[in-house]
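Table S2 (text version). Query chain:
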Amino acid sequence: MSAFGRIFQVARREYRHHARSKGFWLTMVIVPLVAVAAGLIPQWVQENKPARAFLVVDQSGGAIEQAIDQAVIDDAERRTLSALKDYASENIPQEKLPPLSPLSPARGEVTAADVAAFRTWGGLEQAQKILPGLVREGAAAFQPPGPRFVRVKLPDGIDPAADPASIGAALAPYLRSEKKVAETAPSYLSGAIVIPSGYDLVKPTTAIQYWSININEYDLQTLVERALTDAAKRALYREQGMSQDAVAAIESRRVALQGFSPDKAAEGGEVSTKDRLLNVVPLGLALMLWMSIFTVANLLLLGVIEERSNKLIEVLLSSVSAEEFMAGKLLGIAGIGLTILFAWIVVGLMILASGSGQTAQFGYEAINLILSGPYIPAFAFYFVVGYLTIASVFLGLGSVCNSQQEAQSLLTPLVFLLMLPFFLIMPMMEDPNGPIATTVGWVPLYTPFVMMVRLSTNPSWGELLASGALTLGFAVLVVWAMSRLFRNAILRTGQPPRLLEVWRMISRRET
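Corresponding structure-token output:
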């Protein structure tokens, strides 16, 4: 049998061995599901938080209390309008959308002006009247989101005229959920706002107090702070003699900058929100590249250590040379890596196909971007060179270690070294052509991951080809060095060699 035939036999054995394991199948399915869940669960939790009960004790006369109540009402209507726009984009054909209506897609966040226009239009009641005649057949009825905050009364036995500290102390068992503030949900008090006597929004001499056990829960506190800040500004405007209409005109004025890019000159240069979202696609590919390479490289390390410990390696090397054995393992595990990547892509496409609305649309646009750009050939090249480099190093480590514990002591600093680009993700995303990204991109060990992130900025062909050639040469050098180490260390017994011994095994062809 030829050398290539022996390499192929080792590769086939390696592939079949790992493809039969439960871990292989779990990795293929669970990783994309966990990735999707990591993105969707926080959003789902945020959208489905139960309503929180709060109370207000206004000792200053009642004006601030009214401003807080209005802020809570505005917040509920803003959430309703935002949900209504999302529902319309998913269930109403574009040609049926009434022009300039609240059902039109949002341009950024829903503003106070949008909420005011929604009220003038007729609000939720008007929307529920016209939606049945606009939505697609079979669409579920619109369900408005519930309020985030529900105001409750001050419990009996607490004096609203007492000093704020005494009120806070009296509310302690309610804030700790030891006592209920209402029999129906929400039953337990989440926060209490106490406005001291004589408090003046325009010229405050003390502070409004916010009492809560959940010190990391800022939603209500932020809502109230923004509402009262706006109320204070309006009061200051009136103090300066400005009319209510003038104040409203100033408050509603917004200045926006529209982004443009020379890469979109054929389309007028305008950068849309979709373009900004699609800019993270290369980052997703870089993460997928890193995960797939490290997943399969670790299989190589564990496999070699296991074969050394049970003496199977001696039997295998009686039929093939060490170089052929190493090449076969690299080829077989590469097949496992490609299979896992293919499975991740299929599962991802299935998840996208089962979605709807803007999420599915973004998914399809991301796929079109990947298929139309340089991403597939770049991903294939960087997978090969990255895999050969890292997998060879892992194989070399496995050849000098007798147990997983020994390998772990060597692997830990190596993993931290290889993870360095991901500590620099944010600086590179913000300035992909800056000194950090361009410098780290020339380090062969990091080039595959950094250049995948930078592809969206269209780096020059000269830089791509030069850095690619350097990375390929580095990969060849690493494979050559690790093959020498593998050949001279694989049958070695006893304590792991020291660094000087490792260097001698690489630099001299020992027999």
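Notes on Table S2: Residues 3-40+270-507 form one domain. The mean pLDDT is 82.
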